[in-house]
Amino acid sequence: MDKKTKQELRDEGYLIDVCWNRSDIENRAEETGILLTEDQTNEAVDKLVDNFDANLGINWNVIDSVISDVAEYEPDEEEPEPKKLTTRIKNDLEEF
To answer: What average pLDDT score do residues 21-49 get?
Structure first.
């Protein structure tokens, strides 16, 4: 967003904080050793928009989490089942 547009929005009473874009997601993924496909990048953007939480905002931790989510499976595959506790961990928990 250009400075003129930001100023016009401020003049109308809107507060603009930070604007993120696709290249932020792509660059962050590459910095962490992950190469996202175009579909995965689109999925990451969609997740950030659809799951926005005003209490958390969008920050590098949130972006890292979304990158990790979309990199674990292909967008046209089903989302993986949550990992189940291993037998060893279950046994350790039972001892407590």
So the answer is: 92
